[in-house]
């Protein structure tokens, strides 16, 4: 325990410690001198631009990207304009802010993604200073120009530039300034000599922090905490004022006795911090100033860069990296010299147990007498999460496991969860990965984001192992990793299409949640169309295959896949696309090779595009269907001449199709139409368009028996049909004499029972009796029953 506390330094009621994270694996010839350095929080990557103001075309600055452990990720010469500031977005994209206000965005591997400008007026006045900040809205940028004007972008992914009001009396850039996020608003706090101003969207307001007087001197440095809750102001007389960022409450006022402005000043505090502090760095000194007015001094040998974290400060030099943080209270309770906390006693009991000493029982009895064994286990588990050294973690977790054995109703969930999380954290902290996350940062970052970061950095095997170890559902874990891996795999130019397709199929297989069409789309974006087609063959869902094939202009293949799927909606989608993209001749030829698609398109045309249907039949020389089309079209034609013309066209096509029956029927229809028109003109009968039977019924009802007789003969109407029509017509008109004459004109082909039944139906028994005697013997009984 004495060894663990050897690096602790007291600050008020708390302790601070420096934990070695890495021996940096980079080899920087001149260290961090004359370089712009930006390190992302949460153990993120480090960007380094040497001599950023160098403008010689023959000797360009080098932009280098490293992991947090110093492993090289990317390096390339900077060919654009002079850079004022580097920064990282929340998704680990590098922002390079130039003098002319242009912001260039690169991914983690140095590939250019996009750029935007901070406004036209910035181009003319140039950027003097810039800051990258993170807010609930995303990653933002604030700049101040040589004309002393501030421009702000709260979220670079939804760019809305805001030009803040002028600051009275400000010439050039302010002595210092920070960005504050308060009440869902982003503001700028700046100093001009001893005066403080807050700039928001509409106003510039002079503010005065409580307890800070103008006699303390000009404000030369300021810093806001990681959570934007606390603010620190340093004057040129060495006074350090700390308080809430709302400037409503003062925490402390410390005289550092340092009149030289520090290179960096950052807050160092953790959630539930006992003793928050401010870290100031000069060339050879690191000063930790607590709100308790006490300080800790650390000597510095090499130039360093400080990186603010939510629970401490990372100190990066050319040779190593350390984490400065307040020792968590639970760790203080366990490891503090002569501590009698339950966790400390349990840890000592376990050590004695490993030595086979009876003192282990004495320690356990003491904890049990206080009924604190459950609390002791909880303390050991919690403290293990805060420790970076794996041996210390093991000691604490073994002590917790030892204590659990003597508890009957203790829930193991926290113990198991911490064990798993520590194993994951230790894996990602390894220098080959370079993610020095603390347990507190991990909880804030969430497991899902950690996996995303591993995937983004292309640590696919580790990401998959983490997903499997923590039993994350496939669609959230392994499948998502495999999808990203496959998307990167298709971009490898040194492998053939067949090799990549086989590798992807072998690795991905039937993993749930992985869409081969998405992978194929990525291949197509990279200019590998043939590889995309090979990958689409593995896609089980045709609905996913077809849209990409259409995008790739592989219409024939898209149509085949749609037909194979059996999904008519999908076929219609492809056909509709082809119709718009191809000329009519090619379109029809394409459909001819796909009978199913052609049939569906014909069905569509019958309902929506009649003229197209005609062109289809012409293209296929389908005379039968074309004739049917003309017949159907004739019914929609109002004018007789047009109708006869269409029917004549139908006759011509039926002749070509050698359908004699259809020819005869259509010619009969034409004769009937002419006959109807003639009668309409002569008698005004309104017969045009009626069928043969209805025409005859109408003629009989109008008393035009000769004309009905003529139709009967001309169109060879069966005798039975004609007799029935005339019988019903005469009976309905009650022309009984005519009916009797008609019955005697010749032998009835429908018999005489029909006459009896029709007369009865018309309520005329007297007439019905006239025909009973003529009924055949086998039907006579029925006839007599009918007439009563």
Describe this structure in words.
- The protein is of the alpha+beta class and 788 residues long.
- Among the domains are: 331-551, no CATH class; 718-787.
- The protein is built from 31 helices and 29 strands.
- The protein has a 5-stranded antiparallel sheet, with no helix packed on it. The chain has a 4-stranded antiparallel sheet with strand order 3-4-5-6, with no helix packed on it.
- β16 and β17 form a beta hairpin.
- α14 (516-525) packs antiparallel against α15.
- The radius of gyration is 47 Å and the shape is elongated.
- The model has no long low-confidence stretch (mean pLDDT 84).
Précis, in short:
This protein has 788 residues and is α+β, with helices and mostly antiparallel strands. Among the domains are: 331-551, no CATH class; 718-787. The strands form seven sheets. It has a five-stranded antiparallel beta sheet with strand order 1-2-29-28-27, with no helix packed on it. It has a four-stranded antiparallel beta sheet with strand order 3-4-5-6, with no helix packed on it. It has a four-stranded antiparallel beta sheet with strand order 7-8-9-10.
Describe how the helices and strands are arranged.
Elements: H1 2-5, E1 8-11, E2 14-23, E3 35-39, E4 46-50, E5 62-66, E6 72-77, E7 83-88, E8 94-98, E9 102-106, E10 112-117, H2 120-125, E11 127-135, E12 138-145, E13 150-153, E14 161-163, E15 176-182, E16 185-192, E17 195-199, E18 204-207, E19 219-224, E20 230-235, E21 239-244, E22 250-255, E23 264-268, E24 277-281, E25 285-290, E26 295-299, E27 304-309, E28 312-317, E29 320-326, H3 329-335, H4 342-354, H5 359-369, H6 373-386, H7 390-404, H8 413-429, H9 439-445, H10 447-456, H11 460-469, H12 478-489, H13 497-508, H14 516-525, H15 529-536, H16 542-551, H17 555-565, H18 568-581, H19 584-592, H20 595-608, H21 610-620, H22 623-636, H23 640-657, H24 660-683, H25 692-701, H26 705-714, H27 719-732, H28 736-745, H29 753-761, H30 765-770, H31 777-787
Antiparallel strand pairs: 1-2, 2-29, 3-4, 4-5, 5-6, 7-8, 8-9, 9-10, 11-12, 12-13, 13-14, 15-16, 16-17, 17-18, 19-20, 20-21, 21-22, 23-24, 24-25, 25-26, 27-28, 28-29
């Amino acid at each position: 325990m004495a060894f663990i506390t050897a690096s602790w330094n007291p600050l008020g009621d708390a302790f601070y410690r420096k934990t070695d994270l890495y021996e940096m694996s980079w080899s920087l010839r001149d260290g961090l001198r004359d370089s712009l350095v930006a390190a992302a929080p949460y153990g993120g990557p480090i960007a380094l631009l040497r001599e950023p103001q160098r403008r010689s075309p023959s000797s360009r600055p080098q932009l280098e990207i490293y992991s947090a452990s110093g492993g090289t990720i990317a390096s390339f010469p900077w060919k654009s304009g002079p850079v004022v500031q580097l920064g990282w977005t929340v998704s680990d994209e590098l922002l390079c802010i130039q003098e002319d206000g242009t912001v260039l965005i690169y991914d983690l591997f140095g590939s250019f993604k996009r750029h935007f400008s901070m406004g036209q007026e910035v181009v003319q006045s140039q950027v003097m200073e810039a800051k990258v900040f993170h807010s609930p809205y995303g990653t933002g940028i604030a700049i101040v120009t040589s004309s002393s004007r501030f421009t702000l972008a709260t979220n670079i992914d939804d760019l809305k530039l805001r030009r803040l009001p002028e600051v009275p009396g400000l010439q050039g850039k302010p002595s210092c300034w920070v960005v504050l996020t308060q009440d869902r608003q982003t503001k700028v706090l700046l100093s001009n000599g001893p005066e403080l101003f807050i700039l928001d969207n509409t106003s510039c307001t002079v503010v005065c922090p409580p307890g800070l007087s103008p006699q303390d001197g000009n404000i030369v440095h300021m810093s806001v905490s990681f959570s934007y809750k606390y603010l620190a102001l340093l004057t040129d007389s060495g006074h350090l004022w700390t308080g809430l960022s709302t400037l409503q409450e003062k925490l402390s006022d410390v005289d550092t006795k340092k009149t030289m402005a520090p290179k960096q000043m950052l807050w160092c505090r953790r959630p539930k911090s006992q003793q928050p502090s401010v870290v100031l760095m000069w060339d050879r000194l690191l000063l930790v100033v607590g709100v308790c007015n006490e300080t800790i001094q650390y000597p510095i040998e090499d130039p360093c860069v400080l990186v603010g974290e939510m629970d401490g400060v990372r100190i990066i030099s050319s040779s190593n990296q350390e984490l400065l943080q307040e020792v968590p209270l639970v760790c203080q309770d366990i490891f503090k010299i002569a501590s009698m906390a339950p966790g400390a006693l349990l840890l000592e009991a376990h050590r004695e147990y490993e030595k086979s000493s009876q003192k282990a029982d004495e320690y356990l009895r003491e904890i049990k007498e206080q009924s604190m064994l459950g609390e002791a286990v909880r303390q050991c588990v919690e403290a293990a999460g805060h420790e970076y050294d794996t041996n210390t973690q093991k000691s604490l977790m073994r002590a917790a496991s030892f204590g659990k054995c003597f508890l009957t109703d203790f829930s193991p969930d926290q113990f198991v969860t911490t064990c798993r999380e520590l194993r994951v954290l230790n894996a990602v902290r390894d220098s080959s990965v370079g993610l020095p996350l603390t347990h507190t940062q991990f909880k804030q970052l969430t497991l899902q984001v950690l996996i995303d970061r591993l995937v983004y950095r292309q640590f696919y095997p580790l990401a998959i192992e983490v997903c499997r170890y923590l039993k994350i559902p496939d669609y959230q874990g392994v499948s998502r990793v495999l999808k990203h891996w496959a998307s990167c795999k298709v971009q490898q130019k040194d492998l053939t299409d067949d090799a990549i397709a086989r590798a992807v199929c072998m690795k991905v297989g039937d993993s749930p949640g992985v869409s081969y069409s998405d992978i194929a789309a990525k291949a197509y974006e990279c200019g590998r169309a043939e590889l995309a087609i090979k990958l689409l063959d593995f896609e089980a869902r045709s609905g996913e295959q077809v849209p990409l094939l259409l995008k790739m202009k592989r219409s024939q293949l898209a149509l085949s896949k749609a037909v194979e799927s059996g999904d008519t909606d999908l076929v219609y989608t492809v056909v509709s696309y082809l119709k718009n993209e191809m000329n009519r001749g090619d379109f029809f030829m394409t459909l001819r090779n796909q009978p199913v698609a052609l049939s569906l398109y014909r069905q569509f045309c019958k309902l929506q595009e009649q003229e197209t249907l005609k062109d289809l039949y012409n293209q296929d020389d389908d005379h039968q269907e074309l004739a049917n089309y003309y017949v159907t079209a004739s019914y929609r034609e109002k004018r007789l001449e047009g109708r006869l013309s269409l029917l004549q066209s139908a006759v011509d096509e039926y002749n070509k199709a050698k359908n004699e029956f259809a020819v005869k029927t259509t010619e009969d229809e034409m004769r009937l139409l002419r006959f109807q028109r003639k009668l309409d003109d002569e008698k005004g009968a309104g017969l045009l368009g009626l069928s043969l039977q209805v025409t005859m019924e109408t003629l009989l009802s109008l008393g035009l028996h000769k004309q009905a007789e003529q139709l009967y003969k001309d169109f060879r109407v069966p005798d039975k049909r004609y007799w029935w029509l005339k019988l019903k017509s005469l009976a309905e008109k009650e022309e009984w004499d005519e009916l009797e004459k008609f019955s005697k004109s010749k032998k009835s082909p429908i018999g005489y029972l029909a006459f009896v039944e029709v007369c009865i139906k018309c309520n005329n028994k007297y007439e019905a009796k006239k025909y009973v005697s003529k009924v055949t013997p086998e039907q006579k009984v029925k006839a007599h029953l009918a007439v009563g």
